[in-house]
Amino acid sequence: MDRKYPVVVIGGGIVGLSIALTVQADGTDVLLIDKNDIGSGASFGNAGHIATEQVFPVADPSILKSIPGMLLDPLGALRLDWRYLLPLTPWLLKLLGNMRHKPFTHIHRALITLNRASLDSWQSFSKKWQLNNLVKITGSLLVAEKNQTLDKLSQHGEYLNSIGVQNQLLSQSQLLNREPELASNQLGGLFYPNTGHVVDLASLHLRLEQAFRQLGGEVLTHCEVTAITTQSSDKSTVTTTLGKIEAKKVVIAGGAFSKSLVRMVSRINVPLETERGYHLMLPKEMGRLNVPVSSMDRRFIMTPMNGGLRLAGTVEYAGLKRPPNMQRARQFLPLANPMLNKALDSHQASEWMGFRPTTADSLPVIDKKGPYIFAFGHQHLGLTQAIVTADIVNDLIQEQPTIVDCSPFSIERFL
Q: How far apart are the C-alpha atoms of 352 and 354, rounded to whole Å?
């Protein structure tokens, strides 16, 4: 296969797929490549939460004192595989450096801007592609079961309201009225009206892929990129396991696997690591909750989907090659059960682990250099920021002003 395309998108997760569809719909032919199936990575197994309320860096100074205890618990919310400590250390030191006031504030402001634009982008995209039965902008909850946690939640909500992230503090009675299946040990929570969730991620990917193909877009799956060679400022050659492809522009949207792709086209060593996340899917638990419910005390999320209830979360630093520890997925069940009036039905439950792509400063890379456009590193917010990223990338391809200031997302910040 030796073909020529105006645009080649590498990576068929929700970010790459949304970019491919948006660019194709705007009149530029696109080839979408993935080394596996479309939507089969982190996009398949994420929590399904469109989390526009999450506007803080991954590394928050307030959690530093909790880290030792988390690390000592192999099934805790945060785990570091000691065998991966040495290769992780350079990234970890940069992460800690970004906890300082100045970088922390810069990151926080950039996330506020990007997430604010994300909601509008999702709503327009959902309307355009008729996704209202799959994408529900009906809000989400962050709950507390300790008085001390509830006090922190109240302060957190006040601050978020002051910066335009709308929320409402609910009393226990208001919370249980919204979600009657929650147990009385849940003392209250924050309701975020401008958030949402996807009720069927696989159907979403299929719908978007079908729309892309119907517009003339082409897809290559089980096709691994082995080299990218620059021919000129508007031409490159992508070498794959299925042959060579010539492209005017190449979009690198490979999620946690983007670092090696960037190395093919740039000397920049992007500080990108994977935060391995887990989920437990409970197909027998239909209709238990109305909206996603996160626990501030237990550090995980429960999302109602068409296929049941998805319990998801945790952070594990163990790289891309270590096998998963599915006990971490099963641990969600004893975490969730005390939060509910009756125990969850775990019959036919399925377990999953995937790779979240996280830069040391918690911000994605969305940038254009020569024939290359970068769109990766969205950490826990890949689903949330996918559509606004697609809009930005299309603006970059069309050489138009971007809908937000992209300077915080420049790849050259890592020089």
A: 7
* Distance of alpha carbon 376 from the chain centroid: 10
**pLDDT for residue 77 is more than 90:** no
Give 182's DSSP letter.
Answer: B
Place of tokens 């971007």: 402
- 54, 383 contact by CB (below 8 A): no
b/e 293-331 (16+ beta carbons within 10 angstroms → b): bbbbbbbbbbbbbebbbbbbbbbbbbbeeeeebeebbbb
> What does the DSSP 8-state code read for residue 76?
S
> Both tokens of residue 287?
């209709």
The ranges assigned to domains in the chain are: 3-135+197-270+361-414
Q: Which tens digit of pLDDT belongs to each residue from 200-223?
A: 999 999 999 999 999 999 999 999
**The two three-digit tokens of residue 99, written as one number:** 């906890």
Concatenated DSSP letters of 79-116:
EE-GGGHHHHHHHHHHHHHTTSHHHHHHHHHHHHHHHH
Nearest to 267 by CA among 411, 72, 61: 411
169: β partners: 190
Q: Where are the alpha helices (DSSP H) in 98-171?
A: 101-128, 147-162
Looking at every residue in the chain, the average pLDDT score rounds to: 95
What are the φ/ψ torsions at residue 199 (nearest 5 degrees)? -90, -10
Across 142-157, average pLDDT: 97
What is the H or E stretch that residue 69 is in?
A: helix 67-72
| Rounded-to-integer distance, Cα 303 and Cα 261, Å | 33
**CATH numeric code, 3-135+197-270+361-414:** 3.50.50.60
Q: Are 354 and 41 in contact (CB under 8 A)?
A: yes
